[in-house]
Amino acid sequence: METRSVIKKRTIPYNFSDKHIEYIKKCIDCEINVAEGAIRAGKTVDNIYALAYELRNTQDRIHLATGSTVANAKLNIGDANGFGLEYIFRGQSSWGKYKSNEALFICGPATKYKQRIVIFAGSSKENNYKSIRGNSYGMWIATEINLHHDKTIKEAFNRTVAAKKRKIFWDLNPDNPNAKIYKDYIDKYSKQLSEGTLLGGYNYQHFTIDDNINISDERKAVIKSQYDPNSIWYLRDILGVRVVAEGLVYRTFAERTRNDKQSYLITTEDVRDVMEINIGVDFGGSGSAHAFVASAITRSYSKLIVLSSERHLCDSEEIDPNELGMLFVDFCLKILNLFGNITNVYCDSAEQTLIAGLKSSARNHGLGWLRIGNALKTEINDRIRLTTRMFSQGRLLFVEGQCDSLINALCQAVWDPKEITKFVRLDDGTSDIDSLDGFEYTYEKSISRFIRTE
Fold it and tell me: Same structural domain for residues 338 and 401?
């Protein structure tokens, strides 16, 4: 069979600082390798390059790449903004399916024309571990290992036991210092290494954004400025510190509300360049409330403007659908009268009967054209992070006199002090979580677009 030569058209334009080079070199001699630290520090790329080096001469055919979802694994490890496995092995790799799993097939001069298969899998859900059963893997690379379910971690370890060259590469942003990933794995390995009881080699390195020489000082300054310096996200994402979530969720917002509230308030006449207007609905029950929040997304996702918010306390556990329907219709009519349009209505998907009631009320009052559907209900901390960043960048605004319930909710939101292993917003009826959920439903489908606009 004629051998076809592979022409490499370009070199991947990435540079490594001495600290990163030291970590990658140490991966050669260590079975377990962990890169922890701030965002944009280059952690994932280090592990990708270390894995790619080993793929050239490993005798194992099948390997594993995991992220919180399959898409996350493919994006951060396979693609990695042009620095992923498919680019390192450009001209020698192709995407496909292996036993119904997403996979990257690698075969070419780099591997001496021996096939290597990297299977991509999700890991955040309890039953995700089932997707990686049935195979034995050589090496395992995982991005955001702290978001992996423990069953997947244990299964991946078990599936690599028989590897001829067993290598594990993890990366993560700092989490709560009491998180299970530290207690059961990362810090445990460090302790065993210091005691001389861990065999095979353990390679741990902490990185910050300043360790990435591919980002200019000017760009680093811009990235840092996009965070609230008083938030846990700044400590974690920028400084790379393991932090405990405590106190107010939106401390800077609460302080500014007391001292300089006018800085984020605008009038109805100032609402311009609107691209879409969404309403979020959170249903109440015993001890909670119904919440309606409307927000506008401006052109190019430059700003998020809260137009109005309402919170209606529930007198009993039984909800009167007709009364709820009238409250909803009145709120929609107010938004239409003030701002002229409603693009979508996103409701808590757990209450399908109540959603059907809202649709019926809308039809009965001439609003049958409203698009009423389920909220996406993304990870709560992803929503909190976006709210914090938008406010610190001056991109989150409120129409004066229309948003008091939501402003109060943001000022009162606190972290759950009983949760010592992860960041959890307190939801025990002592604060207004209903308005926060309704607000977050209005923008959660556009989180990635808001971040790209930064």
Answer: yes
276 and 165 within one domain: no
Q: What pTM, to 2 d.p., does this model score?
A: 0.74
Mean pLDDT by 10 residues, the chain (454 residues): 46 82 97 96 96 96 96 95 93 94 96 96 93 92 96 96 96 91 96 95 96 93 89 90 88 88 93 97 82 97 98 74 93 97 96 94 96 95 95 96 96 88 86 95 96 85
Q: In sequence order, which ranges of 234-351 are alpha helices (DSSP H)?
A: 251-259, 321-339
Per-residue burial over 320-354, b = 16 or more CB atoms within 10 Å of its CB, e = otherwise: eeeebbebbbebbebbeeebeebebbbbbeebeeb
Domain extent at residue 24? 18-211
From the CB of residue 319, how many other CB atoms can be counted at a distance below 10 Å? Answer: 19
